[in-house]
Amino acid sequence: MSEAKTATAQNELIPGTTKDVLVRVQNLKKYFPIRRGVLRRQVGAVQAVDGVSFEIRRGETLGLVGESGCGKSTTGRTILQLEKPTGGQVFFGDQELTNMSSSELRKARRHMQMIFQDPYASLNPRMTVGNIISEPLEIHNIGNAASRKERVQELLRLVGLNPYFINRYPHEFSGGQRQRIGIARALATNPSFIVADEPISALDVSIQAQVVNLLEDLKQELGLTYLFIAHDLSMVRYISDRVAVMYLGRIVEMGHRDEVYDHPLHPYTQALLSAIPIPDPDKEARRKRIILEGDVPSPANPPAACRFHTRCSYATDICREVDPEFRNFGTDSREHWVACHHAEKFND
């Protein structure tokens, strides 16, 4: 691997390539206030997302992985401005979303949609499938009643469902079918960018591969760009072009999918990958598992400097005192960024 190239600061925008960038996130922060007492005064804040920066290039899938509670879903929701950011900037093309008015944001959301995690909770049980999928068309004043019905039937075919199901209700469908309805709703306004927030975690294993293959087919057919949020590392490798690993509100490693999976440079990434089962009993028996000690620190009071040092077996004094810089150990075509003082130790 090449010698590391260092970003000037941990929270600065990670340099991209000359390829077209659709979504650019710079130093994004989302803090949730902690209030106590009769007057509900703020006594602290949960630092759910703390200085996250990355780019998503047009037509690619960026996988965002990490433990539960690390800030993955909050990152996705804040990018779409479903949660108002505490700080930082989000650019969609040449538009800065964080400074938009409500009316401007509504127009921009036509081109950005979200697939939610729970297909049971995200569909209104009192609405028919036709009304659920056509709702975005009505909100954005797209077409008339006849053209909307035609569009809904087209979308149902696109996601592999019977177009004559438009008058049925969500309770008449299985979990996998409900998620397909959620995908059809996300596609209704013909968006270019979709945040898929753990879209398969609530589904049976036998259905997960079908939904992921559908998302991949739709990406190729419609030219979509995804932020794919998940904790299933094997599935993320399958669908993603690049991968970002998140820990306690910050990205600790990011790069080309094969670089991150085959040559992990951050101890946290190594621990996550060691937990993926290998379908070969002999290899599984020989490989070394990395067991992280202790619990994930509270995001309301995260450790100083490197946030992973309380659970890292390689931690030294510098890890407890200095925030690690984000350095590139890859190449221009296969970038590999990591925030670790001791990354050279793993860069063989």
Describe the structure.
Strands 1-12-13-11-10-4-9-8-7 form a nine-stranded mixed beta sheet, with helices on both faces. A four-stranded antiparallel beta sheet has the order 3-2-5-6. It is built from eleven helices and 13 strands. The termini are close together. A hairpin with a 4-residue loop joins strand 2 and strand 3. The protein is α/β, with parallel strands linked by helices and 348 residues long. 39% of the residues are buried. Helices cover 30% and strands 24% of the residues.
Key terms for this structure?
single chain; 348 residues; alpha/beta; 9-stranded mixed sheet; 4-stranded antiparallel sheet; 11 helices; 30% helix
Helix content: 25-40%
The radius of gyration is: 21 Å
How many angstroms separate the termini? 7 Å
Low-confidence stretches: 8-18
> Major β-sheet, in short?
9 strands, mixed
Shape descriptor reads globular
How big a fraction of the residues is strand?
A: 15-25%
Number of discrete helical segments = 11
Structural class: alpha/beta
Number of strands: 13
